[in-house]
Amino acid sequence: MRENGRVTSATRQPEPPASPKPSAALEQGGTPILPPRLIATDLDGTLLRDDKSVSERTVAALAAAEEAGIEVFFVTGRPARWMDVVSEHVHGHGLAICGNGAAVVDLHGGPGAHRFVKVRELARDNALDAVRLVREAAPGTVFAIEQTYGFYQEPEYPKLHMETPDGLAPAEKLLAPDAPGADEPVLKILAFHHELDPDAFLTAARIAVGDRATVTRSSPSALLEISGPGVSKASTLALCCAERGISPEEVVAFGDMPNDVDMLTWAGTSYAMGNAHPDVIAAASGRTVANNDDGVAVVIERIIAERQ
Question: pTM of the predicted model, to two decimals?
């Protein structure tokens, strides 16, 4: 989940992986890695243009991939209720990974009628620990709570997202056993700081929280996303692929921000967008053009052409 904003300058041409990752799929004689069976793509800053649209070229590329028997998974920090922008493009399986891996959602019902297939919640005790530790490490941090259906925030939390919260209170009260929505799983906590550098805030929070939760970010501002221990785009994608008998070597992944790094490292082939954060460029095995230049579609078109 991120706001609009460019991070780095764009490259003009997609770059294939400089050196293939070691792969169990390699056969004797140096046969190339297995053809892709699944494409995993982030949304904001990756598949979507900065105006949050899906270009006609990208729509056509997604359809061509599905027609060629390649599943497409949207893997995003967005909550399920923000998935209407791509709900028409989920094709056969209808699934998307939301909340940085905290939920697998069936979007077939359309906006407002999605169904949670898998939930990997952040336990409230871990959430309370994370709130306390981040406050100590970065005084002035304000929080919001993302649940399966509800969204709650502290009064000082800025209106970063165009929606009205379901409740306002200090995070400690929002996470209490008797809080409104206490019977609903917490998917992640959002932590915002008005003054800190985003990467410095991320590093400080990761050190403070340790293994009590997973801390990442997808916004160009100092906005962190805190999920359950071990919960990430990569770990939930790995679960979905294992259910389908798909190996990492058969996955092509795309991303642009630190919350994509684990996924890009896990996938057999991965591409950083031309507008990607430096950490993403370092993690990916290849690079494509920017989101506004349809970088995902450029690579998918090449994959389809090579299969013909």
Answer: 0.88
Q: What was the pLDDT predicted at 70?
A: 94
CA 184 to chain centre: 22
Selected residue with higher pLDDT from 9 and 78 = 78
Any idea which residue has 């230049």 for tokens? 293
List beta partners, residue 184.
Answer: none
**What six digits make up the tokens of 19?**
């050196």
Could you tell me where the DSSP H helices lie in the chain? 56-67, 124-137, 171-174, 198-209, 233-244, 261-266, 278-283, 295-307
If we measure between CA atoms, which residue out of 2, 5, 76 comes closest to residue 42? 76
Strand partners, 10: none
pLDDT tier at 1 (50, 70, 90 boundaries)?
Answer: low
Structure tokens at 193: 């700081």
Show the tokens assigned to 196. Answer: 């800190």
Q: Helix, strand, coil shares of the chain as percentages rounded to 5? A: 35, 20, 45
The arrangement of strands across the sheet holding 214-217 comes to 167-168, 151-153, 142-147, 186-192, 223-227, 214-217
Hey, which residues does 158 pair with through a beta bridge?
none
DSSP class per residue in 9-23: PPPSS-B--SSPPP-
